[in-house]
Design a protein that fits this description.
CATH superfamily of one domain: YVTN repeat-like/Quinoprotein amine dehydrogenase
Structural class: mainly beta
Number of strands: 29
Strand content: over 45%
Distance between the termini: 22 Å
Largest sheet: 5 strands, antiparallel
Shape: globular
CATH architecture of one domain: 7 Propeller
Radius of gyration: 20 Å
Number of helices: 2
CATH topology of one domain: Methylamine Dehydrogenase, Chain H
Amino acid sequence: MKTRFLAPLILFIQPELFYWLGFSFFSTIFLMTGQAEESNRLFIGTYTSENGSQGIYTCQCDPITGTLSEPVLAAKCEQPSFLAIHPSRPLLYAVAEHHSKAALYAFTYRKSTGELTLLNEKEIPAQSSCHLCICRLPDSDAGAESAPKPESVVVANYTSGNIISFPILTGGKIGDIATNYAHTGSGPNSARQKAPHPHAVYFDAENKTISVPDLGIDRVMYYDIDMKTAKLTPKKEHPYLILPSGGGPRHLAVSKDKRFTYVNNELSSTVCVFETKIKAIVQEISTLPEGAVVPNNSTAEIELAPSGRFLYVSNRGDDSIAVFAVEPQNGQLSRIQNISSGGKHPRFFTLDPSGSFLLSCNMETNNIDVFAVHPENGMLTPTPSRINIARPVCIVFAP
């Protein structure tokens, strides 16, 4: 019997005390009967300091209760702010977010212990590398099993305003730079949009396309990628999405059927919904509670539930997670919850592989809190699970 079938029953137990007694009871039953699922290994990127974090950390997440084990140092390195993990090989990549000197790390890892071993490191000719993605074709499209699968890493660099691509070599090491492409332009916010600021990169394997939200120019830029060479070229048709002026696009999420793109705007605390094919905006909605005025609030992360029925966005300032229901026919959103993130400055969050739990990285209070996700309505409930870790800014789960 799959444990996820018990989640709806458990989530209806109220009040909260009985909710967690229910989790504990069923967890014990599964452990006694030998049917408990294996814990999920995860890695945590951080901002490092002399008396704080020392690099990338690892811990495990219980798939039934969401309980996190105590984090341990997996690899000592400087400012590994954002991580990307390979979907089928024991490889992890991290950017070092230095303002003046950036780097890209390649690691292999042991899933049993989380220990990371450095393969190589490449200097990035950029400032404030803040996001990266792994580009690879689905196994069915990548050629014969015996042939090497072409793969690459693309990095977004906030302060210097450029995106850079690197090939991944056969053993997982990073090759030499294939493309260094600089954005141009500015936006109306004189404090934040004097220049381009690429804030994230996403790979669409079906269309071999890279999407780049740029906070400084209020656009999502699109690039074709040559999988054999890792070279990027701006798309000739529909090369960008135009966002509302001064909104400051930060991250994005795309529906499974690719009909709709959801972009969170850091500066305006909104989410824009686009019809992907025609690049037309169909909705802009606030991430804040109805009528709330939160000076200097900014959004950070955005993620769709595996079902595609719910969308989550974090607010820094309001220090909340906004929960939206997704209308499947037109992709539009209705906000159904704002819940405290469990700390200050939720710079990042992610859902566990089953979509049953949401893990919130509260950077300024040095903690990661776990929330249970209601399987029917998508709303969040705090759990007792919390770990303390200095300046957490990213989480990835090992496949």
